[in-house]
Amino acid sequence: MEPLLSVHGLSVSYGRFQALHEISLAVGRGEVVAIIGANGAGKSSLLNAIMGQAGRVSGAIRFAGRDIAALPTPAIVAAGIALVPEGRRLFPSLTVEENLAIGWDLGRRGGLRVAEIYAMFPVLLARRHQRAGQLSGGEQQMAALGRALLADPRLLLCDELSLGLAPRIVDRIYALMPEIRRRGITVVLVEQDISRSLAVCDRFYCLLEGRVVLSGRPAETDRDSIMQHYFGA
Amino acid sequence: MAAAIADQAIQGVLLGGLYCMFALGLSLTVGVLRFVNIAHGDLIVLLSFLTLAVCTGLGIHPLLSLVLVVPLSCALFYALQRLLLQRVTGQNPLLVLLITFGIAIIIQNGLLQGFGADTRKLPGGALETATWQVAPGLYVGILPLLTLLTAIVMVWLLDLLLYRSRLGARIRAASDDVAAANLIGLPTPRIFAAAMAVVGATAAVAACFMGLQMNFDPASGPSRLLIAFEAVVLGGLGSLWGTLAGGIVLGVAQSIGGEFDAAWQAIAGHAAFLLIFLLRPQGFFPKY
Amino acid sequence: MLRSQSPRVVAGRAVLVAGMLMLAVAPWVFGLGTISVLTEFLTMLVLALMWNLLAGYADVVTVGQHAFVGIGAYAFYGFAALAQIRPPAAILLAGLVALALALPAMAIVFRLRAMYLAIGTWVVAELFMLVAGKLSAFGGGSGVSLPLPVLRALGARPAERFIVVYWLALVLAATAFFSTWLLLRSRVGIGLMAMRDNEEGAGAVGVDLVRARMLCFLWTAPFLGLAGAIATLQKLRISPAASFSIIDYTVFVIFNVVIGGVGSLEGPVLGTILFFVLREYLSDFGTWHLMLLGALSIAVILIEPRGLWGLIRRRLARDLVPVSHHGSRL
């Protein structure tokens, strides 16, 4: 069976800087796949390219049987891919509820409802009429995850969920992964926090300077080998 | 003397309604699209000429012609943003400014070429002269009153549109963080163009009421722009109700200055603006 | 760095030097008609250099540059005609008045950010113009002609005066060009260019950017005022509409610099030359002339924001007038 997402020979460059060099990877239906790598390895460029927001892109990106490399972002989201951007990127002057509504609005209009997001994150219910800019980092991350889930994605891309958050908060957010899987949503996790992402993923790809240098299943791969490839030693 | 000043103040408040109309579109442009449209006044004058052409061509009242002119104006502003201004948004904002500067000069001279330098007025019929006696000796023109009321309704509608509608939320989202909006799939070029179409609707209404109350000619645009800009800054950048307040302050200042002569009317408006701006640079109701 | 220069750059610099020599010997070569056009050219060049300094380097787009031209014109009239000070001194004093009035203007408009500042300068200019129209000693709303004694002080016959005014304009333009060049090569200029190019080192250059921008704003005022005084000597009268003409002293100037190329010293020169060439052929077409310039400037911004000079620059190894050490970057 064809994987849900397959990337083949993908290169991305911004001006003279080439962020990705002909990388290939595949994500199967229902999998949780982690993309790990140091700062500047090209992880965010990969996600941005899938979303149709990278610089110059060459290569193929196939999702659910169709080539999406040339599609505009709204069409990609409508096809069933949603992103939780690095740094949350909520719209600060909009209320929590408005931020969530935008997610619903852009997506496939099915699956989760706003009420279910509030059930997952009760703190958001209490703050739904506050401006997103006034939320704490953890609350913003919950709202950003909620916004992406409301688009009813088949594939959820998470960019650095744990960045800048207290471990306790990160635990609560990661505790939702089983629930997300149960709903049949495929997940690609980009993380610098290796142990966190290896703990929840089925498979991983390790990027170094824009290339895939290692891939496999966490249980079958030796930690030292991962660390060596991570730092390029 | 006191009665005369009170009368001038009332006329000024009513005039402020017209100035608020000029300024509403600019307030949206500044607050949401984050650029200053130097051609704003000239576009309003262009629409006044268009209204004049529609009125005389079809033999209908200017207010009725809005049915036709508003959609045309929306389309014009939408296309302007989508085809021209969008191409430089996201780059240095000064490029947008310079492009609108070029548009302003093209409109002024295009109108001069097409319509000549004569001053014009829209044919308002009985509405132009109708008055209402508020108190013994105090008369208020029906048209200025209608203008102020329309301006208030426009502010209220725009406020609803921006803060209570789906399009409004999208517009504010794109305005907050374009890059994030693009990343999660908002079609920002279309959203900005839609916002500009809303600006076009306000400009068409402003053009109609301006043409009914004041003379206009191809060179009237810049003074309209300056008044609109002053109202926007006085009100607080991006605040719609503030723009109404700013327009009224300018209207009152001009009206009192106008007791002397036309030049003092303009001087009083600009001087009041500069003075208040020095004392309160963030405006009456700052949003940001 | 290579010492050898590309032949194109050498040729370009030769053209530049030839142009300067031509201006220096013009009174002996050309007739009075040409001298008059050249005087106007030099005045416009000063305005273009000043707008370019602000928009191209200091990130200050002004739409109110005509304010200081008009102030210079009125101040010159005041000193020369009313106070009867000798014209050369009156011209210099006019520059000083422009500088003095630039201080309060700056205090107001610099409270506005980037784009809003543009319209702010326009409001200030409008106010100055309206006030000028209220000065009855200066002819009120309709203006007044320069009295004959003022003109006689420059030369007995009109032909002599033409030449004297030409020399004044040439000295002003040369001073504006070379001093602005030196300013851009100074630490202030380097800091501004680092800011413009969005380099992280902008702060590291150690230049206070706010003060650098203010310096540039104040820098332009006396030059604009002097240009206004010289323009008055050519037009022989002052009036609010003509002395504070936004079309002549701001609109044309912006178009010239945008078309020629913002952010270089060659751009304003090129744009102003092109303006006078176009004017020769198009001035009969009034409105079409302005519409064409407007369309041309929009097209230039869309195609190459650095203007015609930006297009030429792609084919050259370096600037003809190197203003920064980044000159050889591309």
From TrEMBL, chain A:
UniProt keyword terms in alphabetical order: Amino-acid transport, ATP-binding, Nucleotide-binding, Transport
Signal sequence extent: none
Domain of life: Bacteria
CDD domains given in the database record: ABC_TM1139_LivF_branched (cd03224)
ABC transporter domain location: 5-230
Transmembrane domains' residue ranges: none
A biological process term (GO) from this entry: L-amino acid transport
Molecular function terms, GO-annotated: ATP binding; ATP hydrolysis activity; branched-chain amino acid transmembrane transporter activity
Family as reported in the entry's similarity comment: Belongs to the ABC transporter superfamily.
PANTHER family: HIGH-AFFINITY BRANCHED-CHAIN AMINO ACID TRANSPORT ATP-BINDING PROTEIN LIVF
Protein name, as recorded: ABC transporter ATP-binding protein
UniProtKB/TrEMBL annotation, chain B:
Keyword Transmembrane helix: yes
Cellular component terms per the entry's GO annotation: plasma membrane
GO molecular function, one term: transmembrane transporter activity
Record-linked CDD domains: TM_PBP1_LivH_like
Location(s) in or outside the cell: Cell membrane
GO biological process: amino acid transport
Entry keyword set: Amino-acid transport, Cell membrane, Membrane, Transmembrane, Transmembrane helix, Transport
Membrane-protein topology: Multi-pass membrane protein
Residue intervals passing through the bilayer: 12-36, 66-85, 94-117, 137-162, 191-213, 225-250, 262-279
Entry annotated with the keyword Transport: yes
Descriptive protein name: Branched-chain amino acid ABC transporter permease
Organism expressing this protein natively: Rhodopila globiformis
TrEMBL record, chain C:
Membrane-topology descriptor: Multi-pass membrane protein
Keyword set, alphabetical order: Cell membrane, Membrane, Transmembrane, Transmembrane helix
UniProt KW Membrane keyword: yes
InterPro entries linked: ABC_transp_permease, LivM-like
UniProt cross-references to Pfam families, sorted A to Z: BPD_transp_2 (PF02653)
Main location: membrane
Top-level division of the source organism's lineage: Bacteria
Coiled-coil blocks: none
Regions crossing the membrane: 12-30, 36-55, 67-85, 91-110, 164-184, 215-233, 253-278, 290-312
One GO MF term attached to the UniProt entry: branched-chain amino acid transmembrane transporter activity
GO cellular component: plasma membrane
Compartments, as annotated in UniProt: Cell membrane
PANTHER family per the UniProt record, alphabetical: ABC TRANSPORTER ATP-BINDING PROTEIN, HIGH-AFFINITY BRANCHED-CHAIN AMINO ACID TRANSPORT SYSTEM PERMEASE
The protein's name: Branched-chain amino acid ABC transporter permease
Organism expressing this protein natively: Rhodopila globiformis
